[in-house]
Each structure stands twice: as C-alpha cells, then as structure tokens.
Amino acid sequence: MKLNTAVFFGGESVEHEVSIISAHQAIEALDKEKYNVIPVYVAKDRRMYTSEAMLDITFFTGRKLDEAIAEATQIDIVKEDNQVVIKPVKTRLFGSKTLGTIDIAIPVMHGTNGEDGTIQGFFEMLKLPYAGCDLYGAAVGQDKVLQKNILSDNGLPITNWFWVYGTEIDEDRDAVLRKVHKLIYPVILKPARTGSSVGISIAHNDEEYLACFEEARQYDEKVITEKVVKPMREINCSVLGDAYNAEPSVLEEVASVSHDELLSFKDKYQGGGKAAKGAKSAGPSKGMASTSRIVPAPLSEAETENIQKLALKAFRVLGIAGVCRIDFLMDAETKTVYINEVNTIPGSLAFYLWTEKGVSFPQLMDRLVDQALSRERRRSKMTFSYDTDLLMTYQAGGSKGAKK
C-alpha cells in the first residue's frame, strides 16, 4: 500500500523560489511505486494550496506566482479522528469535502517560517510523522546565534564573532564599533536567521560596516559579525541520519564563480557564469546543484577525515536529523578549519553529495521517510502527559493561576 506523502514547499522566506526548485527535485526522486505524492505549496502569505498539476515544476515556471496559485485549490490540513485530512477551503455544492489524507510529510522549505521549526511545530500539532529535524533541531539550525553558542560550548571550532540586536546600532553605535575593531577588519555581517547569502556582506572599514549592518538588519532582528577567514576555501559536508545512526557524505569544495569575496545567491542557484577551474557546473539553474563545485574536494585523507568527524559531532550536538549540509571554512595557508553554519534543509537536499557516495536520490528519499517513521514509533512509546486530579480539587477565587 502506498504512503500518502505530502511534500511541503514555498513559505514566507527570502528563499521561497529556491524551495520550489528543491521540492520538485525531491518530488521527481520519490518512487511513485511506493508513494502517492501530494504537493503542498505554502504561499508567501502562508496560505496552503494543492493541485495535481503542481507535481510538475512547469506549473510555476514562466509566469508570476499569483497566476499559478489561481489555478490551484486553497486547502486546510486538519486532524480528524486518527487521520490528517486535506480539506478545500471553499467547497462546491456537489464537490468533495475532503481531498485525501496524509500519512507522512516531507518539508522542503528553506529559511525562516519553514526550516526554522515553524512547519515542524505544525506537524507536531497534527501528530503527523515528518522527515528531517524535529522542531528543536530545526530552530537551532536556523538561528546562527544559538547554533554558534552550542558549537562553541562543545569545543567545536568557529571563527571569532559577536552578535547584537539590530537596534543596538542606534542605541550605542560606538560600542558596536569597538567590538568590530577587536575583530579587526575585514569582517563579514550576516542576518542571524536567513540563508542563501541574502543580506550577507563584507566590510573593510567603519563606513562600510555601518552600511552593511543596515542591510543585514533588514532581514533579521539579530546581526552577526565575524572575522573574515582569508585566504579561504569553502568545504561542505552533508550528514544523513539521526542521533542513533549517522554518516557523512563525500566533501565538496565550492568555488565563487563570480570571483568576489563571497559566494553570492547567483553563484549558488544560477550557475553564476563561468565555472572555476576544475569545478563542475550544472549549467541552467538546478537549485544548489547549479553551484560551481569540485567533488570530491581536493584534500588529503587526514583533512577529509577531520572535517567528516567535525560534521558528525556538530550534527549530534545540535540535535539534527534527516539530511543536512554543514559548511566549513578552511584557512588556505594554515589549514585551520572552522564550522561556518549548518543547513538543516539544504538546497537540492544535497543529493549531489550522496550520488558521489553511491546513494541515489530515490534511495536518499527512502531513507528520509524511514527515519521519519522510526522517530514516530519511538515517540509513540514516550510519555507526554501526566494525569492529575488538579481540576477536581481546584476552587475558583483567590489568585488566578497562582503556583504554590
């Protein structure tokens, strides 16, 4: 019997369009002999839609999103008895009141309001098995401030850094600049909870820093400042599994094909132009698979093993599950390695790193589904409520809700 498998994508995020591409790569990889695939598109206003035509990415391409949505059915997803049911928001007089049920969810939503635990919390409320991180791992994976503190507390290497709220630059600009001067320029500024290089820039002096800070705080309340690693190599490693069993992928070295100091959104998702020497380029946009890369990364066996061990440890201490990509920075001269950030729902689900290890994209999707079902079986044996007679003995009046 096929599993009714809903792939969630889109969302209110700067990575909305990237999510559409990644999700359709996953949809194509799901074995249609095992899964009845249901596309669930989350619009930028957070309304949900579905349509059988959405199974093909051409439903979205070549036109505005509003035009595509007009041809889909807006839906609600609710729990009825022991089933998660899809219902149309508007029903016709003789139309069906339900559009089917969901057995398992696969979120392929990048960035805020999706990858950050938001959609995972929705699944938790429905008690719907879902692939990838639970809401705690998702939240930590998205918030780089929380992430860096946990990594540092567990002895994992990160660059020198600090963070402030965006409003602090208005309250005491000099205090923020003093922190920057301790790092020494150049520094890199990032919104704490975005991805795909959006809002990220490098500053070489105070004037540039203030301009970059203004840009970064447009995307998040918290702004991170880090010391630039230069000369730098960017090495990525994917990890697949959970706290009980996880394995690292082969490594890749990512090249900034625009030859700037940062890997841009264009470099990551649009091929960026001419590939760096020795790197693979996917040509027309194929999500993260379009990035210019060298696979496997040209590193020594010892360097490769060190990064893979660091990736596995970071995966575990951050409480991640499913398939993630952990990005590393390497000082090209000293060979010192730093963990840059973790992506709990990486672009293209990092499938290109697993095919190099002999795991096909369909096999990768099978393993994500198996992990989701295994987690649900484990959680079904846990205790989440505690029966008491508190309300039987409660008397109205006095201090409301007071604890003794």
Tell me about this structure:
- This protein is of the alpha+beta class and 404 residues long.
- It has 3 domains: 3-130, Rossmann fold (3-Layer(aba) Sandwich); 142-156 and 231-379, D-amino Acid Aminotransferase, Chain A, domain 1; 161-227, ATP-grasp fold, A domain (Dna Ligase, domain 1), CATH 3.30.1490.20.
- It has 13 helices and 16 strands.
- It has helices spanning 16-29, 65-69, 118-126, 135-142, 144-153, 168-171, 173-183, 206-216, 265-269, 301-317, 351-355, 361-380, 390-393; strands at residues 3-10, 35-42, 48-50, 73-80, 83-88, 101-102, 104-108, 161-165, 187-191, 201-203, 222-227, 232-241, 246-254, 293-294, 322-331, 337-343.
- A 7-stranded mixed β-sheet has the order 6-5-4-3-2-1-7, sandwiched between helices. Strands 14-13-12-15-16 form a 5-stranded antiparallel β-sheet.
- The N and C termini lie far apart (53 Å).
Q: What attributes does this structure have?
A:
404 residues; alpha+beta; D-amino Acid Aminotransferase, Chain A, domain 1; Dna Ligase, domain 1; globular
- Spans of at least 5 consecutive residues whose pLDDT stays below 50 are 272-279
Share of residues in helices: 25-40%
Global shape = globular
Strands of the widest sheet, in order across it, are 6-5-4-3-2-1-7
Gap between N and C termini: 53 Å
Give the count of helical stretches: 13
Task: Give a brief outline of the structure.
Helix content is 30%, strand content 24%. The protein has helices at residues 16-29, 65-69, 118-126, 135-142, 144-153, 168-171, 173-183, 206-216, 265-269, 301-317, 351-355, 361-380, 390-393, and strands spanning 3-10, 35-42, 48-50, 73-80, 83-88, 101-102, 104-108, 161-165, 187-191, 201-203, 222-227, 232-241, 246-254, 293-294, 322-331, 337-343.
